[in-house]
Amino acid sequence: MRNLWFLVSCLALIAVSAAREKVVYCYFGSWAVYRPGKGQFQISNIDTSLCTHLVYTFVGLEGENVKVLDPWQDLPNDWGKDGFKRFNDLRLKSPGLKTLIAMGGWNEGSIQYSQMASKPETRKGFAENVVKFVLKHGFNGFDLDWEYPAQRGGAPEDRKNYIELLKILRSRFDEEGLILSAAVAAAEFSANKSFNIPEMSKYLDFINIMAYDFHVAKDLVTGLNAPFLASPSDTPKDKQLTVQAAVKYWLKQGAPKEKLVLGMPLYGRSFTLENPSDNRVGAPARGPGMAGPYTREPGMLGYNEICEMHAMGGWKVVFNMEHFVPYTTMGNQWVSYDNVKSIREKATLIKDLDLAGAMIWSVEGDDFGGVCGEKYPLLKTINAVLRGGKPVPEEPTPPVKPESTTSPRPSLCTTDGPIPDPGSCGFIMCVPDDFGGFVEHAMQCAPGLCFNPAVAACDWPLN
């Protein structure tokens, strides 16, 4: 009889696990409404069928209070666009969809959060103000993006005070039936400075580990943004800087799998090579890659920008089988990113380990307009693996020589590399083709910068 009860219990547990829907946390960078051209992303562009949770970013912290960072875009008034309401109204399209407001992010750092969390009275005041804000604007919950307690200007006591802050938030949120989640550092050497994982897991509904930005341009060597696996040749530190290592660490430290959400990037990290002929992983780099036309941030390119660059031709794509992610290179530009193939593998890991689900940063980085083919190819790939959606074909190989869609003009390129663009403050990347000529790519510099031919890079106008 006891064996029968044991069998019934096991089958019940299996049924509960199978019935638990995988979450897909979709962060929305609200500043994308200001992007130019095909990169402009409005709240109405969000496909609500592809997300279970939508997160509006960001609000800030001011003392114990919630600070609205973009009143014109976020709030209801005569000159505003009422972004919070329009965002929450997306639930009308998809019953069951949950919306959250996120506070923090990289730019906020730790100083204000460390001060707020240091005293019981300020923690309590903060919790009350957050609850009031969430209820006033109609969100289902709150996402705490104090990503690096005890780092980036914080104090050693942050690790303990972070837990105390979660306790009071959990208590108040339970009274109102609100969701409490957090975005956190993924890699072991960073996470162990900031988080008591068993304790924080008691109070959070979901823990979104940011398994990306493992290598960035300040490293001055090319590196992969979000490698899936470690290579045998990786350094001990680099072996921690992979998706698999991060997930293993968080689970081993006590994060419940039913609360652990794996973050994936819908963007790439770019580098400018010291020597265009040395374009391997680990090649010397002199800084960030050139800014894209939409994100306009050196060192970062949305997947939509990357796929459009590929469609123009001239880029070489390498799928690194050791780390199971792609990178792409042209001239002195080198970009690490994720594509359908690598995203599918990461989603499969979530399924195999029965984690809570996936998180993406961020929804506007996908090819939301279908400029390169399928709309939302990366987000749809996640849904295909985790929620039974239709599979998405892998991207085609970039063409060697694209057909021109504009009227012919004399070639400006006479040699490999970047040259000034006579029609803008940007530059033209000249790439030799297989026909004795050049493929010309018009590129933009970040706002406030212009191309400087003396250093072959975007530079301050003063120089």
How would you characterize the overall build of this protein?
The protein has 463 residues and is α/β, with parallel strands linked by helices. The protein starts with a helix and ends with a strand. It has helices spanning 2-19, 71-74, 83-88, 111-117, 120-137, 158-176, 188-194, 197-201, 236-240, 243-252, 303-312, 340-353, 377-386; strands at 23-29, 53-62, 65-67, 98-104, 141-145, 179-185, 206-210, 260-265, 267-273, 285-288, 300-302, 316-320, 325-330, 333-336, 357-361, 417-420, 427-432, 438-443, 450-452, 457-459. α5 crosses α6 and α12 (340-353) runs parallel beside α13.
Please name the defining characteristics of this protein.
463 residues; alpha/beta; 6-stranded antiparallel β-sheet; 29% helix; 23% strand; disordered N terminus
What gross morphology would you assign?
Answer: globular
Give the proportion of residues in helices: 25-40%
First-residue to last-residue Cα separation: 84 Å
- What is the number of helical segments per DSSP (H or I, 4+ residues)? 13
The spatial strand order of the largest sheet comes to: 1-2-4-5-6-7-8-15
- The total count of strands amounts to 20
The secondary structure category is alpha/beta
Major β-sheet profile: 8 strands, parallel, barrel
The percentage of residues in β strands lies in 15-25%
Give me the Rg, rounded. 23 Å
